[in-house]
Design brief:
TIM Barrel, Luciferase-like_dom, alpha/beta, two-stranded antiparallel ribbon, flavoprotein, 15 strands
Amino acid sequence: MSVTALRPGIADPIHFFWFIPTHGDGSYLGSERQQRPAEFPYFKQIAQAVDQLGFEGVLLPTGQSCEDSWITATGLATVTERLKFLVALRPGVVSPSFAARQTAALDRLSNGRLLLNVVVGGNPVELAGDGVFLPHDERYLQADEFLTIWRRLLSGETLDFRGKYYRVEGGRIDFPPVQSPHPPLWFGGSSDAGQEIAAEHTDVYLTWGEPVAGVAEKVERARQRAAARGRKLRFGIRLHFIVRETEEEAWAAADRLISRVSDAQIEAAQKRFAEQMDSVGQKRMAELHGGRRDRLVVAPNLWAGVGLVRTGAGTALVGTPEQVAERLREYQAVGIDTVIGSGYPHLEEAYRVAELLFPALGIENRLRRLGAAVANEFTVGRHGRERVAAAS
């Protein structure tokens, strides 16, 4: 049975992924209090929990401050059963032929549970540390050649290729991937150059969490570009979640998350984002709040507090299960069918999302289904229901 099985009254399924915090985790942003180091045993706890809870997959981030996503996913694939792994594919950082062999190997090891997140942009300062010095738009031209070679090799071709950035002679993959012709390609990029890559090569286009109108505009632009090539895209959104039984609890948790962030930290982070990064998506995130604490609620239940100090996805849906589910249905209405969620700390918040939000979305919580068959102090169970029926 699909983890996106629907309850009556919900028109469309939603695919729900979670996040492995390979750069560290904790209860407070901007503070060393109650922090959890980036260690594999902790990643394993999260992966096994979300595998059992009914999440469809996990995103592993990439960058200088993260444990390597490929090696981490390989380890996690051996200790999970159903979970899919969205791993970074970095044009310009590795060769396309080498990346194709890595892809095939991990797809076989995981028995077809590999997904690829094409990461072209980011922070030019960090990219320089990896030996990448191309300007923004040219990085996407290089990525076009990279993905062309990568796709053709994994499709079984013996390839000769000569382009501006890559030259391959007699390239081939002797051990094919499980998924045919290759694991799906996902991509997130707000610039025109990025959307051209998405339209030409990828299967799922991702956006960070913006107000619905902004997401709808990005989705429509990407859809039109793909249609011009005779292709169709699916669409996903990357969001944090703070879901509680009452609205007051949810907003209190949001305030607590940034309660130890200083004004100096916010100023330094926003300056770094503006001066070091050439990401259009990052600029859109920063413009939502302008670095100001009094502008963090940017749409109903959409809170930009995480983006005060965090790069990338900086918004969270905050509220009751019913409120958050309604906001997600608004995103669905403009084409979003996949959510990549996260929350601080990621282990506990995965349980909260599964226990509170999944029922409101009609997603099956496997632990809840398994627990319904037993009788204990936490559930009526089958035998308890029999006693209730007998007494009535």
